[in-house]
Amino acid sequence: MRKLLQNWYITHAAEKLEKKAKTYAQEIGVRPSRIKVKEFKSRWGSCSSSGEIIYNWKIIMSPNPIVDYVVVHELCHLGHQDHSKQY
């Protein structure tokens, strides 16, 4: 039962996060090479230098403003790979 519920969350997260990422990416003017969902132990998302963004599926259990923040945060890394002042 636990695995079934987890699979539902992963599928739902992939749909929701990809839709949000595409919407915000268009607004920001960036283009991720790929959007994926998986489980991280200690982070909500990551952005690779190749433009791939990976979100933790567990984030969809957070309030929408938090989900939106993380989606936009990772998209912004497409312009700046670090957390410097330029970011």
Task: List the main descriptive attributes of the protein structure presented here.
87 residues; alpha+beta; Zincin-like; 3-stranded mixed sheet; 2 helices; globular
Q: Could you explain the architecture of this structure?
A:
The chain is of the alpha+beta class and 87 residues long. The chain has one domain: 2-Layer Sandwich (Zincin-like). It is built from 2 helices and 3 strands; from the N terminus they run αβββα. Strands 1-3-2 form a 3-stranded mixed β-sheet, with helices on one face. Strand 2 and strand 3 form a beta hairpin. Helix 1 packs across helix 2. The longest helix is centred in the N-terminal third of the chain and has 27 residues. It is globular, with a radius of gyration of 13 Å. The termini are far apart. The relative contact order is 0.19. The model has no long low-confidence stretch (mean pLDDT 94).
Short description:
By secondary structure, this protein is of the alpha+beta class. Helices cover 46% and strands 15% of the residues. It has one domain: Zincin-like.
Cα-atom Rg, whole angstroms? Answer: 13 Å
Count the beta strands: 3
Please give the order of strands in the largest beta sheet.
1-3-2
Give me the secondary-structure category: alpha+beta
Judging by the overall fold, what is the CATH architecture?
2-Layer Sandwich
The biggest sheet, with number of strands, parallel, antiparallel or mixed sense and barrel status, is: 3 strands, mixed
